[in-house]
Amino acid sequence: MNKTCSRLGIKPADRIVAVRIGTQTLQLFEHTRLLKSLPVSTSRRPPSNVKDSLGTPRGLHEIAERIGGGQPPGMVFKSRVPTGRHYAELPEAGANLITSRILWLRGLEPGVNLGGDVDTHGRYIYIHGTNREDRIGEPFSAGCVLMRNLDVVELHEQVRPGDFVWIGD
Known about the structure:
- It is a single chain.
- The chain has one domain: L,D-transpeptidase catalytic domain-like (Beta Barrel).
- It has two helices and ten strands.
- The relative contact order is 0.27.
- A hairpin with a 4-residue loop joins strand 1 and strand 2 (25-30).
- By secondary structure, it is mostly beta strands.
């Protein structure tokens, strides 16, 4: 990741979230010290940065927005707005819903995950909670990084916009 930062001419962030597709894990580092490692679910399709691929995008990203602070765990979001309903109250509870918190990602690598048909932010790629916690640890999403609800609530409190997110194999 330091090579990528150097190539892009940007200073490495103090906090880094590393998502490892191969192991379905997310790790939070601060000043190179591992703070936590958690299970996640990335795309059920192969990794891809291309629009409409439904693959989890690789590369260096930043947290563009933190959404949902103060909402109860399990709150369902539609278009990044809380619906006022817990996922257990909804008939589509079997579907993969966006719940609890949203960390909206923005790519930092032009032509890789920023701009054109490879724009992570424009693809609405998030780290978010899910009602399908039973699927955490296996590829299951449609491109986003899914977390258990209490895990994403805790992560949401520990990160800020501008913190880096590296997604790799």
